[in-house]
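Worked example 2:
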Amino acid sequence: MADAPSTYVKNAGAFKLVSGIEVKNNGAWKRVVKGEINDNGTWKPFFVNKTTIIIPQNAANIDLDNYSPVTAAAKLGDVTVIINQDVVIYSTSPSVPAFKTGNEIQGILTIQFNSSQIFGGGGAGGNGGSAGNNGSAGGAGGIGLLVEKDFVLDNNNSSNFPHVLGGGGGGGGGGGAIDDQIFSDKDRAGGGGGGGGHSFGTAGIRDVECSGSSCSRASTNGAAGNATGSGAGGVGANVSGDAIAGNGGTGGSAGESGNNGGAGSGDTSGAGGSGGAAGTAVSNAGFTITSI
């Protein structure tokens, strides 16, 4: 990937870098995006418009094709995106990558990382199983960085690849349990919900089939994930120790799979749901990342 040309002019005896060129068109000054000269029959660029965009603070779901600081004019030239020190870019859904390069920038795209982090969205927690039935599986985590065009990676003199991780998988729901008694309040126990993964993985939902005087512990929902960690699994219902539903699995932190839900314990018991897979950290679909 060749560097864009730099243009200098001599001003008061000193050469100075040209940051922009404008031409007058129908009475209005317009900025030149790319200037070329004909050298022995070959057109060669002598100037390319360059734009620098700074991401100053934590942000969610960035797509450079739709990120307002990257204007239509900027997309015609070279764009450098600087992610400030320790900024976290995350996704609020496993179906949406945390950061997308887009494909509309026509010039050279450079992304500079400064100990910043990118986390994909967390998978949903699985729901608890009804009495004697299995808990549902946790959802998979989402993509951290989706590469849709070749770009230059400037890691600011660090030897390590930036901290880019897929979202954590959701935890599996707990299995339900049944104790075969004649009393309706002793024959059912619902499972606990699984916890969501990193960055707002939705919580798994409990099954509520446990009631009456013999229900010593009702089931609880799992907890949703958040921007910095995984969600906890919910607790399974307990019918006097005769039918104990499984607890939901904890969701995975960024880049980790969710945990399986626990199996129920009773005369008839369901298995815990499986934990969701961790999301893909970098999906480049054949495009090239050039490190400098």
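The mean pLDDT is 89. The longest helix spans residues 72-75.
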